[in-house]
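Progress report, Aim 2. The chain analyzed during this reporting quarter is listed below.
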Amino acid sequence: MTDYRERGEAEAAFLQELERIGEGYTDRIRKNVPLAQYTTMRVGGAADLLFEPKSLTEAALVYKAALCSRIPCMILGNGSNLVISDDGIEGLVIRLGESFAQIWTERDPEQDGATLVHAYAGALLSKTAMTCAKEGLAGAEFAAGIPGSVGGAVHMNAGAYGGQMSDIVWRTVYLDANTGDLSVLTGDQHAFSYRDSFFLRNNGVILSVILRVFPGDRDAILSRIAELSQKRSASQPLTMPSAGSVFRRPEGYFAGTLIQECGLKGLSEGGAAVSEKHAGFIVNTGNATATDVWRLMNRVRDEVYNRRGVRLEPEILFVGRGFTEGSR
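Predicted structure tokens for the chain:
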């Protein structure tokens, strides 16, 4: 973390760079914006600065201006897999809102029967999956109940019920984390593995994604989505704020089962609690803080390790002041 003077100088340089670019970007910079409203856990402090781009070009220009000014910059999508520090986010947050929710399809020009599904990074994964289903395209059913954005899902190779993004992602357009230049990954270049990808190791700002899927029986696809939705409703605390599954699946075990076997359902820290419905979730019971969630997560990790000898690793990210960037 930089000191106050360095932060002020970086912010001033950033705003000056935006003024140089023109287009009225500085007028759209918002200061001290509370971020809890933009996350599914509903916790966290404010962003020093927040900008919501209206196009891919705007996102690229503002991100590059942040790099040139050496101001910290974080990208925020649906906020479904992270916990933001109570002390907020230093520097700039670029939030990919409604302007980044576009989804459309086209036939693959290779003519092998595939369809290409284009989605901007801010598009909801669930809406993208339903777009596929309604057009009779199979392969994205697993994603219909995942609450994140397409960009976030690719970033961590999100998955559920035997499917994951690596099964359907074909191409990703992103901004290089070091230069801000527009770059493209195709196929194996994504370096996907379990809840991991090129982006978790190299950062970068995902702007848009192309999925490659194939025709299927529309009724069967919708039926499968309904079946998975019923399973989620029966087993997950969907009516309470959470950041999704807290821990990665340890080899040979299920995190939720281990936590339940240790008798930790209902364990609480302030306003955060281990879900009574699914022990793999920490929920906000109404007045939780990010610190509550952090402390409870670590208590659960320690208890499971002490009792079962298994070290759980967080799947959700802890970001902002007081947390190491991308803490797990």
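The longest helix spans residues 290-308. The chain has three domains: 4-99, 101-222, 242-319. These observations will guide the mutagenesis work planned for the next reporting period.
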